[in-house]
Amino acid sequence: MPFATPLAVAIYFTIWWIVLLAILPLGVRSIHEENEDAPPGADPGAPIAPRLLAKAGLTTIISAVVFALVVLVVRAMP
Description:
Elements: H1 5-23, H2 52-76
Helix pairs in contact: 1-2
């Protein structure tokens, strides 16, 4: 591996968060967009079903692919 283990973990962690922030808004519908009555105290822009666990899994898979590409690029460098 071209990186020390702590550096590899830090790079993967950074990639994971960037990918998560890109994936979070995908497929989210708000209470207002669905024309549903908001519970008392809820913001009308709150998501109905954010599917966070599925998005975390997708983020992990995409991040692993991106990290593998980073490792390949770094290994290919002279």
